[in-house]
Amino acid sequence: MAKKIVLTAFLILVFACGLKAETKNVILIGWDGAQREHVMQALEKGELPTLKMLSTQGQLVKIDIEGTTDTKAGWSQILTGYYPSVTGVYSNNQYHSIPEGFSIGERLEKYFGDANIYTAAVIGKKGHVDAEPEEMIKVTDDNRAELEKRLKAKVDKNGKLKKPDCRIKDVNGVEYFFSPGKPHYYMSKNTDLFENGLSRNEKVGKRTLQLLDENKGKRFFFFVHFAEVDHAGHNHGENSKQYNYALISSDKWTGKIIDKLKELGVYDETTVYVTVDHGFDEDAKNHHNAPYVFLATNSTKLIRDGRRQDVAPTILEAFGLDLTKIEPKIDGVPLTQKDTRGPAKIGSDKPIKNKQKKKTIQL
Ligand SMILES: [Zn+2]
Question: Is 0.85 topped by the overall pTM?
Answer without folding.
Answer: yes
